[in-house]
Amino acid sequence: MANLSFIFCEILMILATILLVVEPVKCYSKQHKALFVFGDSLYDPGNNKYVNETYLKVIATMWPYGETYFKHPTGRVCDGRTVPDLIAQFAKLPILPPYLQPGTHRFTDGANFASGGSGVLSETHPGTVRLRLQLSYFKAVKESLKQKLGDEKAKNVLNGAVYLFSIGSNDYFSFYRTYPNASQFYKGKFVKMVIANLTSVLKEIYDLGGRKIAFQNIGPLGCIPAVKSFDSKLGSACADEVSSLARLHNRYLSIVLNKLESHLPGFKYSIFDFYNAFADRVNNPSKYGFKEGKAACCGSGAYRGEKCGWTTINGTKLYQVCSNPREYLWFDGAHPTESANFQLAKLLWNGDPKITGPYNMKQLFKL
Ligand SMILES: *[C@@H]1O[C@H](CO)[C@@H](O)[C@H](O)[C@H]1NC(C)=O
Ligand SMILES: *[C@@H]1O[C@H](CO)[C@@H](O)[C@H](O)[C@H]1NC(C)=O
Ligand SMILES: *[C@@H]1O[C@H](CO)[C@@H](O)[C@H](O)[C@H]1NC(C)=O
Ligand SMILES: *[C@@H]1O[C@H](CO)[C@@H](O)[C@H](O)[C@H]1NC(C)=O
């Protein structure tokens, strides 16, 4: 019945739109689950084009970013689709536009607040859309939904939605750059501070109506070409010092989410073990259909770790770019190719509990 009335409502809306009676709004249905995305450059759909800081505005706004799928640079730090783009498609939702993009938005589908350079802590990369600012945008979305749909239906949208996160890498890059020789004690303290701030944001999302949280945990940061290009002593090995911060974070993250589930009625979650999934691809690229797992497709210097897309004023390219990004795990010095993202998104969507658990995203959407 719900489906029939939904279809009926859709037809009415199309007619109404043709007759210009009402603005084209999406019909609300119980089947329709929204996706809200919080995060950093791995998930940014182009929000950075609209931020104040010029150094952030230009991230991935030049060729060859976007060459594979969108055919033009969109601000995604990738040759094509990112993980949340693919998850939206798996969930039969449209690809979510940048939240900061001017114009009307259909928040019944969700919203993507992710922004390159951002972290959990407000001290990380000043000027970025840090996690707390992303949360304030989510609060504005809730208000907008309440005005459009009324309190009850807005609440149903937020309760049914899935909230997807990729955040924390930038906090640890910043920390590692500032304190390369931090003691075990200070590393532990820092990770706890990041986790505490993250936890308080998750609790607020719960209080605002969020129930289903999904995380891509932090990847093997020391294997990132940009990190390796700065330390010639490493050879082809990964920098374990910074990866160890990621591992510690990931351990605390699973403890915290487990605790939240037992304390907050209706709270359900999913953690995709991006760390191990990606480290295995770096070490055994051919097992996953890649020719190259260490160097990036686009960039210059060791491992093509930097300057993808950079040109001089006279038009001289400062980078090389591979002819087939599908053969590469990394597109630029810190971000996977679309073909790598496709494998990652599939694991997040319906991976088995060893890699994505206790629920995967497909199951979260069905709950
Ligand atoms: C940009 O600046 C405006 C005005 O100062 C401010 O309201 C807004 O929050 C800023 N945006 C970001 C992303 O910092
Ligand atoms: C960190 O330790 C290395 C030796 O392990 C040393 O070469 C380097 O100067 C130290 N860096 C700082 C910022 O203290
Ligand atoms: C969040 O991080 C700040 C530092 O950015 C720290 O002072 C504060 O205590 C943290 N908040 C929580 C709830 O841990
Ligand atoms: C363009 O500028 C670069 C240095 O920025 C220089 O090496 C190169 O020769 C210049 N090319 C032309 C065609 O002027």
TrEMBL record:
Transmembrane segments: none
UniProt keyword Signal present: yes
GO molecular function: lipase activity
Signal peptide residue numbers: 1-27
Keywords: Signal
CDD domains: SGNH_plant_lipase_like (cd01837)
Family to which the UniProt record says this protein belongs: Belongs to the 'GDSL' lipolytic enzyme family.
Protein name: Uncharacterized protein
Species of provenance: Acer saccharum
